Sequence to fold (285 residues):
Amino acid sequence: MRQFRVAVLNIVMPLPHSPGRYVELLQAAYRQRRIVSLRGDYAGMLGALDTQGEVISGQFYKFFNLNVDSSWFNLSNQQEAEPGDLAQIRVPPHLKPHHLAISFVFVPQRHRLIFVTRDGHESLSSGMAKSLLDSLFSDVELTQLFGEIEITIEPSREQLRRIFAMPRLKKLSIEVSPPNPDDLDEAERDVLDRMSEERAQRMSVELMSKHPRGLQPDEKHKLLAKVAQSNGKVSGHGEDETGNVITLSTADHPLIKVVTYDPNIQTRNHALSVEAQALVQALRD
Fold:
């Protein structure tokens, strides 16, 4: 048996849109073949895309964007490389080292992108994947066609429960962007309607308390926090029973799922596709 780990991004575009518009967005980003900076000297791009079928499959390419014009070090004499040493370097600009292909599945109906965050030496953090897509989707041409795209890293569902389970919750911060209007539950619909009526791009709610027992959020704020965990973030600040300070945020704990499969009867990509659809359904519950 083999294992890999997956994470989830929630991608939301403004109206008008449909599952087909999300497909068009990814196709447009793929056609641009843009390379974007990630962390340090690493870069990434949308490297492969297959839009056939109910779900979209593809790959992120991650690689080391080697700058041959930077300073070099000569290990033989423990000194900076001389011009004569540098003259021997021949690296074609189209070749990049440390290449990794990171598989993903995108479910247009629920606008969720599920990707392999770790499999052996292959790794792409949730933050890096979000940064890659943020950069791609913020291109002027794509923004004119599709509007500003909001991307949220799906957090562990335990994190919101931990925030509300604090013995003394003294401060609750909720930041929410408009959720996708295509497939909302009642709580999400109420939030979207309220924000639409007020023409609000973002909503921020902050509750604070000096009460000895801390805050006691009502159902309205709990439902708002539930919407915000997938469309923004929720932060809590308080104390435990002994007075130790606790600070928790949904942004700090991405949802990570371990997928186990038998390579003798199933490919990794098939296991990823099956898990992606199961995860999307679980996020609705």
Observations:
- The two ends are 29 Å apart (CA to CA).
- The mean pLDDT is 87.
- Residues 268-284 form the longest helix (17 residues).
- Residues 168 and 214 are 5 Å apart (CA to CA).
